[in-house]
Design goal:
The complex is a heterodimer. By secondary structure, chain A is an all-alpha fold. In chain A, helix 8 packs across helix 9. The two termini of chain A are about 30 Å apart. Chain B is about 35% helix and about 25% strand. Chain B has 23 helices and 21 strands. A 7-stranded mixed beta sheet of chain B has the order 16-17-18-13-19-20-21, sandwiched between helices. In chain B, helix 5 crosses helix 6 and helix 6 crosses helix 8. The chains are: A mainly alpha, B alpha/beta. The interface between A and B is medium-sized, with 26 and 35 residues.
Chain lengths: ~290, ~625
C-alpha cells in the first residue's frame, strides 16, 4: 500500500511541480514568497536591533541609514524592519498552520460526508451549519478568556476552527459531483475500499480546487489574525504581528506614514504573490489544462 | 471529377433542374492555430447540395467533416480559420461580418447537433424554445408563435404535442429531444438543414425513426439536407449523394447507390466492409464455452427486481420506478450473453445488479454458489477480482489524475498487493500489449488518448487479473465504427484466450451477434425473449425482437429504404406507469385484447431459451 501511494503522489506531484516550474509567473511569485519567508526566519540576524529594544535617540525615525534603522522606528524607538519581519514570521506561521489545520479537517470532513451520503452526510453537514451559525467572534472571546490570553495555541485553534467550515462545504460539493462520474463506480467495481476511493480517487481530484482555496485561506488567516490582535485577543505587545503593526501604523498615518506603509506593503506583496501562486497551482494540478 | 460539377450534372438530370445548388463549397479548408503550429483540419473540400437533395458526409471522428460545416455556419472555435469559398444561395459566407452571418444562417440554415440534451436550454419549456425561434423570424404574435410551435411538434411526430409544449427538456426522452431540435431547426423555414451526427446517441429503433423523419421533411419542404455521420450504414435510404471524408479531404463522392454499392476508393470499401463484418455471423460459435454448455451456471439471477425511488416526499420517495422486474437468468462458465433493449429497458441496471454494484429490491444474485447479497463487504470486495466491468463512457471511467500505468495497475494494487513493483510493471506492460496499446502510452493521462484508446485502457484494467466474468455496459456506443470493430474483435480474442464469461449489454444487435452465443431481449425491465443468437436473427419469436432486428441499418441502398419505410413510430412508455398486461402492447402491431388484460407468462421450453408473448405461436 505505502509504496504505491508513494508512486501515485510522485506521479501527481512531480508532474505538477514540473508544470509549475515552467510557469514564469508562478516562479516569480514563489521566489518573492520564499524570500519573504527566508527574511522572516532570519529576522533576528538581519539587523543589530532586537524587536523590543528601545532606541531613545531615534523615536519615530523615518526610513534611512541612521544607526541601521533602515525602515525607520516607531513611537517607542523600536526598529520597524525587525518588527515587521518578526510580525511577518508570526503571522505567516500562524496562518500557514491554521490554514493547514483547517484544510486537513475540511477536506476529510467534506470528502467523507460527500462520499458517504445519506444520513451520515446530513448529520455532518448540519454540524457544519450549526458551527457556521454561532457568532464566531463571541466564541473566540469566550475561548481566549477561558484560556490564557494571547496564547498562540489558543489563537491557532480559534483560527483553524472557523477555516475548515468553508473548505468542508466546498469539498463536499466537489465530491458529490465526482461521485456521479463513472471512474468512481469503476473503482468500486474493482473492489477498491471506501478509504482507497477517498484517498486515491476523490482527494487527488479535489486537490486542484483545494490548492487554490489554500492560497486564499492563508491571506484570510493573516487578516483574521490581525483583526483578533487588534481587538486585543491575538498577539500581545511587545510581540509583533503584521496585524497589530498595521493597526499601530494606522494610528500614526498622518505624522509617520512609514509605520503603516512598511507592514502594509509587506502584507500586500505577500497577498498578491499567494494569489498568483494559487492560480498557477490550479493549472499545474489539472492535467487537462494542457 | 469535382463534386460541384457532379452536382450540376445531377440536378440538370434531376427533377429540380432549375434549383441549382443551395450550398456549394469550393476548395474549402479549415486550419487551427495551436501552440505547436497550424493544424489542418480540412482542405480542398469541394461539395455542393441542391434543393430537395440529401448529401451525406461520412467519415471517422477526426476526419474534419464537422469542422467543414461549422466553418460554413461561422461557428468554428476561436483559433480556427476557414479559407476557400462557401456559397449559400449564391452568397459568399466566409468572411461575412458576424451580425450579417447571423441573419443569413438564422433565416436560411437550420442545424441539428449530436447531443440534443446539450443544445436545449434546461430551464425553458420546449414550447418557449420553439416559439422564441418562430418569433425571431416571423414577427408572429405570442399566440400565433405557440400555434406554429404546436404545428411543428406535430410535424416531427412528437406524441402528445400539446402536453409537450409545457414540458422541460429533461422530461423528454433522447429521441423526443432530437425531434424538438429538428422542430426548432425547421421553425425558421430553412432552405438548408445541417444535421451533425443526429442519431449517434440514440437507440437503433429511434435512429431509424429520426432518419426517416429527416428524409420525409427534406422531400416535403424541398430542403437541402446535409447529413454528417460516422455510420455509413445509416445513410442508405436517406442520402441521394454521399461524400466520404478522410483526414480532412474528400476522398470519394457520388450518388448513394454508386458509392455504397461499388465504391472506387479502398477507404470507402474498408468502411463498408467494417459494416459487413459487424453484421456478419458471429465468431462466438468458435469460442470454447459453446462446446460445454451444460455446466453448472456460473452466475444465476433469480427473480431479480430493482426499483428506484423517484421524487422526495415526507414518508420516503413519492413513487417507485421498476427498472428491472423479475429477471431469471443463468450464465454458464465461459458463455457470452448479450442483453439488448432500448434505453430505459433496464439493461444497464441489470448489469450493475448482476455485479452487486447496486442492491436489488427483490431476488438473488448467485455467483459460483455464493449469494452476493448475503456476503459481507470485505468478502464481496475480494470477489470483485473475478467480476469486472467496462463502461459506456471510456474517458469517464478513467480517473483523470492517473496515468495509464497507474490505472491499469490499480487492480493489482487492490487484489495483489504483495506483488513486487517490478512484477507489477511487467504485468502492466503485458496488459498494454495484450489490448494493442503502445508501451509509450503508459505515462499518458486519459485526456491525451482517443476514445478507442481509453476503452482499451479500461479493458486492460478489467482483464489484468484474468476475471471469470466481464460485464460490458454499452462499451462501444461512444466509438465510431472501425473502432467498434476493433474492440469487438479484441473482446472476442480475450474471451477465447481466457475463457471468461461475458455479459455484453448493448442496444446494437449487430454487435451482439458478433460476440454472443445467447441474447436476452429486455423491454421496460422485463424479459421479452431469450434465445441463441443465430436463432434470434433467423426466427425471432417476440414481435419486439423483430422490431429491433428490423431497425438495424443496412448500407445496401436497395434494402434500406424499405426498412426505413417500415419503421414504426412510438417510443417506450414511461417505466413509472407501465401499460397493463404485456408492457409491449402499446407498440406491438399484433396486440389484441388479451395482451392488455394480463401479462404474458414466461414460456421456457427448458432449453435455456424462452419468450414472453401471448401470441408467439401464431405469429
Amino acid at each position: 500500500m505505502s509504496d504505491s501511494a508513494g508512486a501515485l503522489t510522485a506521479g501527481l506531484w512531480s508532474d505538477a511541480s514540473r508544470r509549475l516550474r515552467a510557469d514564469g509567473r508562478a516562479a516569480t511569485a514563489l521566489g518573492v514568497v520564499g524570500a519573504l519567508a527566508l527574511l522572516a526566519v532570519l529576522a533576528p540576524w538581519v539587523s543589530p536591533w532586537s524587536y523590543d529594544s528601545l532606541d531613545w535617540q531615534h523615536l519615530a525615525q523615518p526610513p534611512g541609514f541612521a544607526r541601521a534603522h533602515w525602515l525607520g522606528t516607531d513611537r517607542l524607538g523600536r526598529d520597524l524592519l525587525v518588527r515587521t519581519l518578526l510580525g511577518l514570521r508570526l503571522s505567516l506561521s500562524i496562518s500557514v498552520l491554521a490554514g493547514a489545520l483547517s484544510l486537513t479537517i475540511g477536506v476529510l470532513w467534506g470528502a467523507v460526508a460527500g462520499l458517504a451520503g445519506g444520513r451520515l452526510d446530513a448529520w455532518m453537514m448540519r454540524f457544519v451549519d450549526v458551527l457556521y451559525s454561532l457568532p464566531y467572534l463571541f466564541v473566540v472571546i469566550v475561548v481566549t478568556t477561558l484560556f490564557r490570553r494571547g496564547s498562540l495555541a489558543v489563537l491557532l485553534v480559534a483560527l483553524g476552527a472557523v477555516g475548515w467550515l468553508t473548505t468542508a462545504r466546498m469539498v463536499r460539493a466537489e465530491t458529490l459531483a465526482l461521485k456521479r462520474r463513472q471512474f468512481i463506480e469503476a473503482a468500486r467495481a474493482l473492489g477498491v475500499t471506501p478509504a482507497g476511493i477517498l484517498l486515491r480517487h476523490v482527494v487527488p481530484n479535489v486537490l486542484g480546487q483545494v490548492a487554490v482555496y489554500a492560497t486564499l485561506i492563508v491571506p484570510q488567516m493573516v487578516l483574521f489574525e490581525s483583526f483578533l490582535s487588534f481587538l486585543g485577543l491575538g498577539v500581545q505587545e511587545p510581540r509583533a504581528s503584521l496585524g497589530n503593526l498595521i493597526y499601530g501604523g494606522a494610528q500614526e498615518m498622518e505624522s509617520a506614514p512609514w509605520m503603516l506603509l512598511v507592514p502594509a506593503g509587506v502584507l500586500v506583496v505577500l497577498l498578491v504573490c499567494l494569489n498568483v501562486l494559487g492560480d498557477s497551482l490550479r493549472d499545474a494540478f489539472d492535467p487537462r489544462e494542457r | 471529377m469535382s463534386a460541384s460539377l457532379h452536382a450540376r450534372s445531377m440536378s440538370t438530370s434531376g427533377e429540380e433542374a432549375a434549383a441549382g445548388s443551395v450550398l456549394s463549397l469550393d476548395r474549402l479548408g479549415v486550419t487551427f492555430d495551436t501552440p505547436a503550429g497550424p493544424v489542418t483540419a480540412a482542405q480542398d473540400v469541394t461539395l455542393a447540395v441542391a434543393r430537395g437533395e440529401c448529401l451525406a458526409v461520412v467519415g471517422e471522428s477526426g476526419a474534419g467533416k464537422s469542422q467543414v460545416f461549422l466553418a460554413v455556419i461561422g461557428l468554428l472555435a476561436a483559433n480556427g480559420h476557414a479559407h476557400g469559398s462557401a456559397r449559400f444561395g449564391g452568397r459568399q459566407l466566409l468572411g461575412l461580418p458576424p451580425a450579417e452571418l447571423d441573419r443569413v444562417r438564422g433565416a436560411g440554415i437550420g442545424m441539428v447537433f449530436q447531443d440534443p440534451s446539450l443544445s436545449l436550454t434546461p430551464h425553458l419549456t420546449v414550447g418557449a424554445q420553439i416559439a422564441e425561434v418562430v418569433r425571431r423570424h416571423s414577427h408572429a404574435s405570442a399566440a400565433e408563435a405557440r400555434r406554429r410551435a404546436l404545428a411543428l411538434l406535430e410535424r416531427v411526430h412528437v406524441t402528445d404535442p400539446a402536453r409537450r409544449l409545457a414540458q422541460f427538456p429533461h422530461e423528454l426522452s433522447g429521441g423526443m429531444r432530437q425531434r424538438v431540435m429538428i422542430a426548432i431547426a425547421l421553425a425558421s423555414d430553412p432552405q438548408l438543414l445541417i444535421a451533425d451526427e443526429p442519431t449517434t446517441s440514440l437507440d437503433v429503433t429511434i435512429q431509424a425513426q429520426i432518419l426517416a423523419l429527416l428524409a420525409e421533411l427534406m422531400r416535403e419542404r424541398a430542403m437541402a439536407l446535409v447529413l454528417i455521420t460516422h455510420d455509413i450504414a445509416a445513410v442508405a435510404g436517406v442520402a441521394d449523394r454521399v461524400a466520404v471524408m478522410r483526414q480532412g479531404r474528400v476522398v470519394e463522392t457520388g450518388t448513394a447507390a454508386a458509392v455504397l454499392k461499388s465504391p472506387r476508393e479502398p477507404y470507402t470499401r474498408g468502411l463498408l466492409e467494417t459494416v459487413a463484418l459487424l453484421e456478419a455471423r458471429g465468431t462466438a460459435a468458435a469460442a470454447p464455452g459453446v462446446s460445454a454448455p451444460r455446466g453448472a451456471p456460473a452466475l444465476a439471477l433469480t427473480d431479480l427486481s430493482v426499483s428506484y425511488g423517484v421524487g422526495r416526499g415526507w414518508l420516503g420517495p413519492r413513487a417507485h420506478l421498476a427498472a428491472v422486474s423479475a429477471v431469471n437468468l443463468e450464465l454458464r462458465a465461459g458463455e457470452s450473453l448479450g442483453i439488448v433493449g432500448e434505453s430505459g429497458s433496464g439493461k444497464t441496471t441489470l448489469a450493475r445488479a448482476a455485479l452487486a454494484l447496486l442492491r436489488p429490491s427483490r431476488g438473488r444474485v448467485v455467483w459460483m454458489g455464493q449469494d452476493l447479497g448475503a456476503l459481507g463487504r470485505r468478502e464481496l470486495r475480494r470477489l470483485r477480482r473475478d467480476l469486472q466491468i467496462i463502461f459506456q463512457d471510456p474517458p469517464g471511467s478513467l480517473d483523470p489524475r492517473m496515468t495509464v500505468a497507474q490505472l491499469i495497475g490499480e487492480p493489482l494494487r487492490v487484489h495483489a498487493g504483495t506483488l513486487a513493483p517490478s512484477a507489477r510493471t511487467n504485468a502492466v506492460a503485458a496488459a498494454l500489449e495484450r489490448v494493442g496499446l503502445a508501451a509509450e502510452l503508459a505515462c499518458h493521462y486519459p485526456h491525451q488518448l482517443s476514445g478507442g484508446q481509453c476503452q482499451r485502457v479500461a479493458i486492460a484494467r478489467a482483464v489484468i487479473l484474468e476475471p471469470r466474468l466481464l460485464v460490458c455496459d454499452e462499451p462501444l456506443s461512444a466509438l465510431d465504427l472501425p473502432t467498434q470493430l476493433q474492440i469487438v474483435t479484441l473482446l472476442a480474442e480475450l474471451r477465447r484466450a481466457t475463457g471468461m464469461s461475458l455479459l455484453f449489454v448493448s442496444h446494437n444487435l449487430a454487435l451482439v451477434r458478433r460476440l454472443c452465443e445467447r441474447v436476452l431481449v429486455l423491454y421496460l425491465g422485463r424479459m421479452m425473449e431469450l434465445a441463441p443468437t443465430e436463432r434470434l436473427f433467423e426466427a425471432a419469436r417476440h414481435p419486439y425482437s423483430r422490431e429491433l432486428l428490423g431497425a438495424i441499418p443496412s448500407p445496401d441502398p436497395d434494402i434500406q429504404p424499405a426498412r426505413l419505410a417500415r419503421v414504426r413510430a412510438g417510443e417506450p412508455p414511461s417505466a413509472l406507469e407501465p401499460p397493463s398486461g404485456c408492457v409491449y402492447r402499446t407498440r406491438c402491431p399484433h396486440a389484441v385484447m388479451v395482451c392488455a388484460g394480463q401479462p404474458p407468462r414466461w414460456e421456457d421450453p427448458g432449453d435455456g431459451t424462452g419468450v414472453a408473448c401471448h401470441r408467439w405461436r401464431e405469429l
